[in-house]
Amino acid sequence: MPAHDVLIIGAGLAGQRAALAAAENGASVAIMSKVHPVRSHSVAAAGGINAAISIDDDWHSHAYDTVKGSDFLGDQDAIEIMCSEAPAEVMHLEHIGVTFHRNDRGEMDLRAFGGASMKRTAYVADITGQALLHVLYEQLMKHHETVDRYEEWFTTSLLQDEEGRCCGAVARDVRSGRMEAFKAKNVILACGGAGQAYKPTTNGLIVTGDGIAMAYRLGAPLMDMEMVQYHPTCLVETGILITEGARGEGAHLLNSQGERFMEKAAPNKMELASRDVVSRAEQIEIDEGRGVGPGGTGIYLDVTVVPRKRTLEALREIVNLGKDFAGVDITREPITIRPGQHYIMGGVKTDVDGRTPIEGLYAAGEVACVSVHGGNRLGANSLLDTLIFGRRAGEHAAARAAAIKLPEVDANAKLKSDVGEIDAIIARPHEGRRVSEIKDDLGELMNRYAAVFRDEAGLLTALESIGRLKEESRHAWIDDRGTVFNQDVLGAIELGYMIDCAETTVVGALERKESRGAQFRTDYPERNDAEWLKHIDITLTDDGPQVSYSPVTITQWQPEERKY
Amino acid sequence: MADIHKPPEEFRIRMRRYDPESGEAPYWDEHTITLAPHRSVLEAILQARDRFDGSIGIRCSCRQAICGSCGVRVNGEPALACHTHLDAALKSSPDGVIEIEPMGNIPVIKDLIVDMDAVHWKKIQRVTPWLINKQPIPEREYLVSHDAMVDVTQSMACIQCGACVSDCLAMEVDPGFIGPAALAKAYRFVGDPRDAQQKERLVDLAQDPEGIFDCTHCFKCVEACPKDVNPMGQIMRLRRIAIDDHHIVDVNNGERHEAAFTGLIKDNGLLWEAELLPRSYGGNSWFGKLHPAAGKELLSSLPAIVKALIRGKVTPMGALKPHKLKSKDLKSVQSIYEKIEKKPERYELNLYISGVDEVVQETPVTVAGGVETEASAPAPESPEGSTSV
Fold this sequence. Notes:
Chain A is an alpha/beta fold. Chain A contains 16 helices and 19 strands. In chain A, strand 8 and strand 9 form a beta hairpin. By secondary structure, chain B is an alpha+beta fold. In chain B, helix 8 packs across helix 10 (231-245) and helix 12 packs across helix 13. At the A-B interface, helix 3, strand 4, helix 4, helix 9 and helix 10 of A face helix 1, helix 3, helix 4 and strand 9 of B.
């Protein structure tokens, strides 16, 4: 049975950064991912990474922007750590080979981004996530002797010893169908968000809440799951993302009257207000009949105001996306977009070292909620979050591993039960519904009732429907009876993960009777600091999800009215 | 460009299926799906999988041509399934059914899933795929030019999908060829001014018999690449830097072959095929053929030479004399050489960034409802460093 000091599940930016940090600190490391690491969804991050590296900038300013962006729900101690450590981390990335674009002095160039008080986003064209991910993978190849890679291994559950410590995982080699238990002194979850619980979403098909659900099932609390970000610029039909970099370079948003309607919602920052503000403003235009395109369900993003050469060089990817996925040459005409599900600010509750309340279990990246994003994440802060807290989790886990022995656990029991469960799914008779049908229903449901605007009646409907889908999913059938690359059976397990995530999102949204950040309750349209300046924690018990609260850490910025 | 306003219609897709556990040979599997013509082949496959047969195997995730998972062959040509429109695929189909197969040059695991580790990633690892830092590492960022970073971004933009590997003709003949994707990756370091081992990397790749001189310039990889990485172009740049900047003379005769080739065209205006081989091996002059190395090579090529003579591809007279070109035309060819050789620096064309700034657009942008607005709001100041490439 493989045994490691640190087992990392998920190989996007957070996971790879954690692996490299843990190995550097002397731990024996394994990194496991259900896809090849460079396919991880971090690859799709386009715009850039925030850090106060300019001599005119100060990390305090970055931190304040982040606190304000979070609608004061972010924990300020964590935000201070992220923003103060950002410049060194970005320099480290530059040193290991990220091809950050430069200014005419040869220093890293910076672009403007939403919610930021100055230009502080370092970038590689509009493929920043890809560049970072591929460079980290170069480092994993370089350090192949100290980091074991389990590529295309799907994790089915986490192992826990009698004292409740997390001490490994059970996984299935997708290629051979073989199941194996992995012992570990520490497990770091780094397997991303749960965007596929929504339809449409900007997220890839692999983003199915695996880590959030596995931690939740193990007893770890989830925090602020109601905070789901809708990105303001997604293609109407497919939900494909158009980077915020477009607005960072100066693009405008226009309604059917040709008005820059952001004048009303954010007279100072206009299109570069924070994402929740822009998405809401767009949704109001659409709902009030000033949308564009078929059915008036879209908004124009006008990139033609950006110099063409600059667009071709710095926004090349979206020039191609426009052509290939919407039939529009963005350098010549506006493109129709709308808000779409993009990111989950909530996740597994952790401290600033990535530790969850379960000993031995860490989380970093979108799967986690530290919380640095609070009610709304600023663009280009997610890459930073993955790298800072991935590294910190890796370092902390390596230090903890040095001090303890490998926990005793009978891994075979869990292994056997997981094998049995998979066999049972494969053997399900073709009665009831297909997994794919239930997944579609879930996505449409969430996008209808747990989107930009929410109210109690809709959320109650959603909760009830999720209960029904959960029941149906227990008998949902699949076609593939094989073992080699049986993606069908993995889809059935992923559906269970997504349903758990969706349920906690709706429970949290019902609980929070105010409007803050991404959560806008039409029945409680104001922010209510007196009652709701607190995190909502959800823990799984025998009676289902249980809600509790924890305080928001405030260090130097008292809540104030949020205006852009 | 895709027309997004057409309603859904029926398309037939035919997939190459293979179940390694069945003991059966691969077979064709056909489905009819309903989607708008601008939707992707991937969406068609996923519809078939969701509605008719969940056992269809394909790797996929992002649906937007950035994760690199869904490399396949559509009607015989390598492509990302998510990046190929159904209407375009239908047009290139010979019989009205869109044919989808796993990629070539890589063993198939199941259905459309191929063994990327066995071929693609093994080759990537061959080129020492990480930065070897120039020392000392600065406290802040390395100061390098904007152009250099934009330049390597072209090969950085490779999503490791394997489409170029699938279609590489040289690899079909020599599976050991390092190949287009890995050599493009190599350029990402050779072209990076922060790397300390440019020359060592180039020596390694030039001396490897399956390295940079194994490419046959067929352009297949350029055509196959969904991200305009231009792998063959990167290979040619590696050669130019190896030869012109580092004067690496390789055991594969790549450098001498290039010198003979360009020399013959400069002298004659057209290639003198019969002289190419002796000069590549024996030295770049008419006397080259008298060198023992050339003799040996000529001898081993004898069967091919005889075959060419029998089939009339060359005539004895043609072999003895160069092709004739009018002196005016010869002069024009030679003037190209003069012009290029006079340039103080070599100019590398980067196809990744194309287009130029146009005069400020004066035509109004039309938005829905026929309302017109002037697209004349002041454009934001271009951040420093966006110099022309």
